[in-house]
Design brief:
This is Lipocalin-like domain-containing protein. About 20% of the residues lie in helices and about 40% in strands. The chain is of the alpha+beta class. Strand 4 and strand 5 form a beta hairpin.
Length: about 160
C-alpha cells in the first residue's frame, strides 16, 4: 500500500511539474508570414543589413561594391507596420518608407518610394547572417534612372 501511495504521489508531482512548465513553452506556432518577416527584421522586429564587412553588390553581373560600400538597410516590423530605413544608397533606394510582401509570395517584397528600387519586386533569401536582395530596374525615358537601370544583386551582412 505504501508503494502505491509513493507511486501515486510521484505521478501527481510529475503531472504538476508538466502543467506548470507549460510543455515546450514556445506558445502558438508562428505563421509563414511571421517567419518570413523575421528573416528581414529579426525576432526583435528591427535588423540592419550592410555591404560593409564582406557584402557585395553587382549590376548586370559587374561588381559595384565600391559604389555601395557604406550602404545599410534596416527592416522594421512592429505593431504599427513594416518600414525600412537606408543609408548611403546612391539614390537607388529612398531613405525610408514602408515594405510589404508581394502578394502571397513570402520571398519577395516591395518597397515604397520614388527612387529606382521602389515599387519593384525584390526577391530575398536569407542564409544565417547573410541576406541577398535581387531585382531589376528597367530603363525608362528618364536619363537619371536610365543610368541606374539593370539587374541588381545585393549580398548583405547582418550588423551585430
Amino acid at each position: 500500500m505504501k508503494g502505491l501511495k509513493n507511486c501515486l504521489l510521484a505521478s501527481i508531482l510529475l503531472l504538476g511539474f508538466i502543467a506548470c512548465n507549460g510543455g515546450d513553452g514556445e506558445g502558438p506556432a508562428k505563421t509563414a508570414e511571421e517567419l518570413a518577416t523575421e528573416k528581414l527584421s529579426g525576432v526583435s522586429g528591427s535588423q540592419t543589413w550592410t555591404v560593409s564587412n564582406g557584402g557585395s553588390v553587382t549590376r548586370d553581373g559587374s561588381p559595384r561594391t565600391a559604389e555601395f560600400a557604406d550602404f545599410q538597410i534596416r527592416f522594421i516590423a512592429n505593431n504599427t507596420g513594416k518600414s525600412y530605413i537606408t543609408e548611403n544608397s546612391n539614390l537607388l533606394f529612398d531613405t525610408n518608407g514602408s515594405w510589404a510582401f508581394e502578394g502571397e509570395n513570402l520571398d519577395k517584397i516591395i518597397l515604397s518610394g520614388i527612387q529606382p528600387a521602389a515599387n519593384r519586386e525584390i526577391s530575398f533569401t536569407r542564409n544565417q547572417n547573410t541576406l541577398r536582395l535581387e531585382w531589376a530596374v528597367p530603363a525608362p525615358q528618364n536619363a537619371r534612372v536610365k543610368a541606374l537601370a539593370g539587374f541588381y544583386v545585393f549580398d548583405l551582412i547582418l550588423m551585430e
